[in-house]
Amino acid sequence: MTTSEPGDAKRPTRRSSNPTVHDVALEAGVSPMTVSRVLSGGKNVRLEVQERVARAVETLGYHRNENARSLRPGHRSGLVGVTITNIANPYYAEMLRGVEEIASAHGRRILVGNSNEDADLEKQLVADFIGRRVEGLIVVPSSAGDAAHLQLERLGGVPVVLASRAVGGVSADTVLIDDVEGARTATAALLAEGHRRVAYLGQRSVFTGRRRLEGFTVAHEALELTPDEELIRVGQQDVGSAERAMTELLDLADPPTAVFSANNRNTVGAIRAIVARRRATAGTGAGGGGDDIRVAGFDSFDFADIAPVRLSIVDHDAGDLGRRAAAMLFDRLDGGAQPVEPRVLELPVTLRDLF
Amino acid sequence: MTTSEPGDAKRPTRRSSNPTVHDVALEAGVSPMTVSRVLSGGKNVRLEVQERVARAVETLGYHRNENARSLRPGHRSGLVGVTITNIANPYYAEMLRGVEEIASAHGRRILVGNSNEDADLEKQLVADFIGRRVEGLIVVPSSAGDAAHLQLERLGGVPVVLASRAVGGVSADTVLIDDVEGARTATAALLAEGHRRVAYLGQRSVFTGRRRLEGFTVAHEALELTPDEELIRVGQQDVGSAERAMTELLDLADPPTAVFSANNRNTVGAIRAIVARRRATAGTGAGGGGDDIRVAGFDSFDFADIAPVRLSIVDHDAGDLGRRAAAMLFDRLDGGAQPVEPRVLELPVTLRDLF
DNA sequence: CGTGTGTTTGGTAACGATAACAACCCGGCC
DNA sequence: GGCCGGGTTGTTATCGTTACCAAACACACG
C-alpha cells in the first residue's frame, strides 16, 4: 500500500476493527502468507522482509487471531476450562492459582466459571467451554443435582479431571483430599487427650462432608466409642449458622468438651461462639464453662494461628490440589498414548497444633 | 443423503474429532444452513425438521464451535480477560467472583491470568487475550515495571478497566478503593481520641500503600500535627515482618500509643506484637506498658472482631470492586455511544469499631 | 389458470490464518 | 547455454459457521 491506487477498494480501510494478516501484508508490501511465515518464526524469509513485516505489525498494532488459528485442523485452542463451586472461597482461589500455574507452564490459558453449587449452571458452563473448544476441563463438581453432563461421551471426548470431589457414576481422573484420614486423625487426637464428648460441625450433603463425618465416626469406633448423635450438627453453610450451632451445643445440659469441625467456616463460627461464651461467663465470675473447649478443624484459614482457643488444623495444600489436577490433565493432553483407565489420587493431609 | 453412496467419500467419518454442522446435517438429512438456522432459534424451519435436527445434535453430541462463530463479522467473542497480580489472595479472589458474576449476567466468560506483580508477564497475558479477541479487559496492574502495554492504542481499541490500582500515564476507566479517605478517617479517629504518637505500618512502593500513607499524613496535617518519621515503618510484606516492626516500635524510648496499619497482614502482625508484649510485662507486674495500644487497620480479616485489642477496621467490599469494574466495562461494551473520557470511580469505605 | 405473497430450503461466499503446492529467482555445474 | 537444487515468495483451498441471495414450494385471490 505504498501507492494507493483508486482501483484497490477491495478492502476499505477499517481503522476501528482489528487488523488482519491481510492488512499487515498490504502495509509491508508482501503477501499474507509471508506475514504468516514471519510470525511463526520467519524460516525461509529474507531478513529484510522480516524486518519490514515486523515494522508493519508494530505500526498497525496487529495481534494474531487465535480463534481463527485454532480453526485449522490439528491446531489446538490453548484453552482449559475450570468450573468451581465458589471462586471466592480462598481454598478454591488457591486451587485456581495452582491450576493457572501449571496451565501457564504448558502454554494454556484458563477459562473460569462459577457454578455456585448449581448442577444446571455447571452443565451450561461445561457446554459453553466445549463450544469454545477447550482442550480439557477441571471441574469441582457441584454437590446438588445429577452429573450426567460430565460423562465422557457427553463431553465429546474432552478429558475432564474432577477436583476435590468425586461424582458417583462418573469415571474420570480425580484428585481428592484424604478427607477420611484427616478427620480420623484429628478426631483421634481429641479422643487421645481424654475428651469423650466430641462434637461434629459440618455437612452431610456434600461429598467431602460425608467423608469427613466418616473419619470422625471411624476414630470413635477404633476406641469402641459411639459418637453422641446430639453432638453432630450438619448443614451449616456459613460462619453465622456455624456460630449458632456451636452456641446451641454449649447450651446443652451435657455440653461437648471438644469439637471437630469439617471446614474452615464452621471452625471460625465455633471459635466465635466459644469466645462469646467465655466473655459472658467471665462477667459472672463463673470461671470454667466454655473456656477450655478444645477445637480441631479441617482446612486452614487466614490467621488461624491467632485464634484464642486451643486449636489444631487438618492442613492441606489447595495449590497442590490444583497443580496435581492440572498435571493429570496435561498428562493426558500432552503425554503420549495414555492408559484409558481413570486414575484417582488422594492427597495427604497433616495435623498441625497451633498452640 | 440418507443412503450412503460409495461416491461421497468427501468427508470420511471421523469419530474422534468434534462433529460439525456438516455432520449434523448429514445425520438429519438437511443442509448445514438449515442446521444453523435451527440452532439459532429455528425461525422459518418446519417443526418436523427442527425435531430431526435436534435429534441429530443429541445423537452426535454436537456443540457449536464458538471460535468459528466469533470469526464472522459483527460477531463478538463473548470473552473478557482478567489479569490479577495474585489470584490466591482472598481479596482478589472475592473481586474475581464479582467480575464473574457480572460477566456471567452479560453472557460473557472470563479468561483469567495471574501476573504475579510482573509487568512483562502482564504484558504477555494482555497480548494473548487480545489475540483471543476478548471484548474487554479488567486489569489489576502490577506495581513493578512500565505500563506502556496498557495504552489504549496498544490494545487495538479493546477497552480496559483498571481495578484497585491506577497507573501513571495510562488514562483508562479505573475503579479504586478510597484509600486516602479510609486512612484519613481511621487516623483522624485515633487523633481525636487524644493519641499524639500514632505509628504507621504499611508500604510505600505499592499504589495503595502510597495513598494510605497520604491519608495518614493528611489526617495529621488537618490538626496541624506532623507525624514522627520514627514511627513510620514501610516495607513489611508479611505478618512476621510486621510483628518485628511493631516490636521495634514498642521498644522505642517514646513508643507510640496507637498504630494505624495499612493492610491486614500488618494489622495482625501488630496485634501479635502487642499481645506478646502484654504477656511479657504482665509477668513483671508492670501493668501499663503495651497494654492499651490502640489499633486501626485497613482491610478486614477473620477474627478481627475477637481480636484482643481495641481495634477499628477500614472495611471495603472486594466483590463490589469487581462488580463495579465489570459494570464499567460492559457499560462501554453494551451501552450505546459513550463519552470517550475515562472515568475514575472511588469506592467508599467504612470505619468499623470492633469493641 | 396465472400472478402474487409468504414460507421453507439450499448454494455461495466470507470471516482470519496457514498447510500444501506451485512458481520463481539465484548461483553453480556440466 | 541449459539444467538442477535450494531458498524465497505467492496462490489455492480449507478449517466451521452463517449472512445473503436465489430457488422451490404452498396457498390465496382475481
UniProtKB/TrEMBL annotation, chains A, B:
Keyword Membrane assigned: no
Keywords recorded for this protein, A-Z: DNA-binding, Transcription, Transcription regulation
CDD domains: HTH_LacI, PBP1_LacI_sugar_binding-like
GO molecular function, one term: DNA-binding transcription factor activity
InterPro entries: HTH_LacI, Lambda_DNA-bd_dom_sf, Peripla_BP/Lac1_sug-bd_dom, Peripla_BP_I
Region feature (Disordered): 1-21
PROSITE patterns: HTH_LACI_1 (PS00356), HTH_LACI_2 (PS50932)
Domain of life: Bacteria
Any Pfam family: Peripla_BP_1
Protein name as it appears in the record: LacI family transcriptional regulator
Species of provenance: Labedella phragmitis
